[in-house]
Amino acid sequence: MALDKAPSWQPWLQQEFEQPYMQTLKRFLQSEKAAHKVIFPHSSDWFHALEATPLDRVKVVIIGQDPYHQPGQAHGLCFSVKPGVRIPPSLVNIYKELQSDLGIEPVNHGYLEHWAQQGVLLLNAVLTVEQSNANAHQGKGWEQFTDRVIELVNARCEHVVFMLWGSYAQKKGARIDQNKHRVLKAPHPSPLSAHRGFLGCRHFSQANQWLLEQGREPIDWQLPSSPAA
């Protein structure tokens, strides 16, 4: 495990790989592979959120919980799926909110790379999962690593919007300095809870308004119609 493809994060996070908790996590993942368990996403995508969004470009942070656990879905960005994969229900609701908030017509794919490249850190709390076994890798060490990522953004970045959807994300972001950053909270966009306040939260327009007020470029939330664009 290394951050070779995420040079902006490397000076601050590379030492985490020497910590006992990460050594324990590494041994766990190796034992799972030795037992022929299928792990998602592919190991080359475990740190894709950090690779796609350099530390010095972070404008928005969206925190997810666990990677998708079916074949072909997860590629290291929370809520995002690879091109050609059916759009998951939570992302369908995110698109609904984008449409009501900003008038953005939903696209027919769930590939959110365009957001990540503009400075939206799409960070799952846990970076791996076993196929067809949701939450299988919770409590193995990833949470401590991603807490460190959030601490780093909190300390070293200026004027970042944190979108905390659901109680899990809100606990994860509990220590964010709200004098420096904007924290937006809403229920999770899953079909079980979206109607309790995620739909209608207007987080996307609020984020852009706040970025503009801080002299930062807003996010273009309109995804390309073709995921390869």
Automatic annotation (TrEMBL):
Uracil-DNA glycosylase-like domain location is 51-211
Q: Does the keyword DNA damage apply?
A: yes
Q: What residue intervals traverse the membrane?
A: none
EC id? 3.2.2.27
Read off the InterPro entries from this record. UDG_fam1 (IPR002043), Ura-DNA_Glyclase_AS (IPR018085), Uracil-DNA_glycosylase-like (IPR005122), Uracil-DNA_glycosylase-like_sf (IPR036895)
Q: Which UniProt keywords apply?
A: Cytoplasm, DNA damage, DNA repair, Hydrolase
Mind listing the GO molecular function terms for this protein? uracil DNA N-glycosylase activity
GO biological process terms, alphabetically, are: base-excision repair, AP site formation via deaminated base removal
User: Active site annotated at which positions?
Assistant: D66 (proton acceptor)
What's one GO-annotated cellular component?
A: cytoplasm
Q: Where in the cell is it found?
A: Cytoplasm
CDD domains from the entry?
A: UDG-F1-like
Its chief place of residence is cytoplasm
Mind telling me which Pfam families this protein's record contains?
Answer: UDG
Broad EC category: hydrolase
Q: Which reaction does it catalyse?
A: Hydrolyzes single-stranded DNA or mismatched double-stranded DNA and polynucleotides, releasing free uracil
Q: List the HAMAP family hit by this protein, alphabetically.
A: UDG
> Sorted alphabetically, which NCBIfam families does this protein's record hold?
PRK05254.1-1, PRK05254.1-2, PRK05254.1-4, PRK05254.1-5, ung
**Stated role:** Excises uracil residues from the DNA which can arise as a result of misincorporation of dUMP residues by DNA polymerase or due to deamination of cytosine.
Give the UniProt family note: Belongs to the uracil-DNA glycosylase (UDG) superfamily. UNG family.
Output this protein's name.
Uracil-DNA glycosylase
Organism encoding this protein: Marinobacterium iners DSM 11526
What is the gene called? ung
